[in-house]
Design goal:
By secondary structure, the chain is an alpha+beta fold. It contains 4 helices and 21 strands.
C-alpha cells in the first residue's frame, strides 16, 4: 500500500513537471500589425524638389560706361514700361580699336538676327492663336448642335489658352530682343562732345516688379554691367531637374501635384516642356548625376499661389501613371521570396505566406494583379522570425485572445 502511494506521488510529480514544461515550451502568438488589401485609386509619381521662376525676366544693364547713381527702387517695387529706373553719369569713352569695333559690329548683327527671329516667332504664335480661336468657335458650334462632346470643347479651350500664352511670351521675347539690339548699337554710337558728365537714363523694358537690385550705391560700371532684374511675379513657372532616367518617362501635358510650398492646399500643375539637353550635377553624396530640367505651369488660378515668388522652393510630384480603381496592398507588407514577391496574410490565428504578382508601385502601395483578394488582412512589417503557419495575434486584439 505504501509503495502504491509512493508511485502515485511520483506520477503526479512527473505530470506536474511535464505540464509546466509544456506550458513553458508552448509557442506563443507573435504580435503583428495588419492592413487590409483594398481597392482604390493608385497614382505613380516622380517626386523631386523644384523652384519657381519668373517666365519673362529682364536683366537691365548699363548702356554706357560711367558712374551709376544710387538706385532708389527696392525689390518688389512695381515699374511700368518706359519708366526711368536708373541713371548713369557717362564718362568719356575710350576709342575703339579695330578688334573691339569688329566685335561690336558682329554683336549688332547677332542682335538684329535675334530680333528678326523673335518677330518671326511672334507672327507664328499669333497665327497659331488665331487658328486656335477659329477652331474653338467651330467646336463650340458643333457642341451646341450635339455633334461633339463637352470634353472636346474643353480640349480646344485649353489649346487656345496655351496659344495665347505662347503669343504673350513671343511678344515679350520681341521686346527683349529689341532692348538687346539697342544696347549693342549703343556701343557703336559715336561719342558726342557732351558725353563726359552727361546723365543717361535707363528705362524699364516692360511692366513688372523689381526682382533683384544688382547695384545699389553709386559705383563705376562698364557698359553692359547688370543693374536690375525685372519681371512679372504673376507669370511664374516651376523648374525641376530630374534624373535623366526619370525624365524619359515624363511627357508634356502630364499632370503634376505641387506640395510643401507653404500653403494649406496642394496645387495642380502640368508639364509644359522637357528640355532636350541634360547637364551634369554633383549630388549631396558627391556622385555625378545626369539631370534634365522639366518646366511646369500652374493650373490653379494665380490667386491660389499668389504668395509664391521667384526662386521659391516647392515639392513636385509628376504623375506618370494613375488608375481610379485597382487592387492594392501596402508595400510595407511585401518581401522577397526568391525572385518573386510574397506577403504574409492573416488567416485566423495563423500567418500564411502567399506569392503575389505585382503591377505598378509607389513608395506606399503596390498594385496586385494576382495572389490576393479584396478584404484580405496582410501583415505589415513582418519580422525575419515569422514563418509560414506561425501563430500570430494582431496588436489591436485583447491580451487574452
Amino acid at each position: 500500500m505504501l509503495r502504491l502511494l509512493k508511485n502515485r506521488r511520483l506520477w503526479i510529480g512527473v505530470a506536474v513537471v511535464g505540464g509546466l514544461l509544456a506550458v513553458a515550451l508552448w509557442p506563443t502568438a507573435t504580435s503583428v500589425d495588419e492592413a487590409p488589401v483594398s481597392r482604390g485609386p493608385l497614382v505613380v509619381t516622380i517626386d523631386e524638389e523644384g523652384t519657381t521662376r519668373v517666365r519673362n525676366r529682364f536683366v537691365v544693364s548699363a548702356p554706357v560706361a560711367g558712374r551709376v547713381l544710387r538706385i532708389e527702387l527696392e525689390p518688389g517695387d512695381a515699374v511700368k514700361h518706359g519708366q526711368v529706373i536708373a541713371r548713369v553719369r557717362a564718362e568719356a569713352p575710350a576709342l575703339l580699336d579695330a578688334r573691339t569695333r569688329a566685335e561690336a559690329e558682329a554683336a549688332v548683327e547677332s542682335a538684329r538676327a535675334a530680333l528678326g527671329r523673335a518677330r518671326a516667332e511672334e507672327q507664328r504664335a499669333k497665327a497659331t492663336l488665331s487658328q486656335s480661336r477659329r477652331e474653338l468657335d467651330r467646336v463650340r458650334g458643333l457642341a451646341r448642335e450635339g455633334v461633339i462632346t463637352r470634353q472636346e470643347v474643353d480640349a480646344r479651350e485649353a489649346d487656345a489658352q496655351v496659344a495665347e500664352e505662347s503669343a504673350n511670351a513671343a511678344a515679350f521675347a520681341v521686346k527683349a530682343a529689341t532692348s538687346d539690339l539697342q544696347r549693342t548699337e549703343a556701343r557703336l554710337a559715336p561719342p558726342t562732345a557732351d558725353v563726359p558728365g552727361r546723365i543717361v537714363t535707363v528705362t524699364a523694358p516692360a511692366d513688372g516688379v523689381v526682382l533683384k537690385r544688382v547695384r545699389e550705391s553709386e559705383t563705376v560700371v562698364p557698359a553692359g554691367d547688370p543693374l536690375l532684374e525685372i519681371g512679372d511675379p504673376r507669370r511664374l513657372e516651376i523648374v525641376a531637374d530630374l534624373l535623366s532616367t526619370d525624365a524619359v518617362r515624363v511627357t508634356p501635358g502630364a499632370r503634376a501635384i505641387i506640395e510643401q510650398w507653404g500653403g494649406d492646399k496642394k496645387l495642380d500643375a502640368k508639364v509644359r516642356r522637357v528640355e532636350p539637353a541634360g547637364f551634369t550635377k554633383i549630388s549631396a553624396l558627391g556622385v555625378e548625376e545626369q539631370r534634365v530640367n522639366v518646366v511646369l505651369d500652374f493650373v490653379d488660378p494665380a490667386a491660389a499661389w499668389a504668395a509664391l515668388g521667384d526662386a521659391y522652393r516647392v515639392e513636385v510630384r509628376i504623375v506618370t501613371w494613375e488608375a481610379a480603381d485597382v487592387l492594392k496592398v501596402p508595400t510595407s507588407a511585401l518581401f522577397r521570396k526568391g525572385e518573386k514577391w510574397a506577403v504574409y496574410v492573416l488567416d485566423g490565428e495563423r500567418a500564411h505566406q502567399t506569392i503575389v504578382e505585382l503591377g505598378r508601385q509607389t513608395g506606399q502601395e503596390a498594385e496586385v494583379k494576382s495572389g490576393l483578394t479584396e478584404g484580405t488582412k496582410a501583415i505589415i512589417h513582418p519580422s525575419d522570425a515569422l514563418t509560414d503557419g506561425a501563430r500570430v495575434k494582431p496588436r489591436s486584439a485583447p491580451q487574452g485572445s
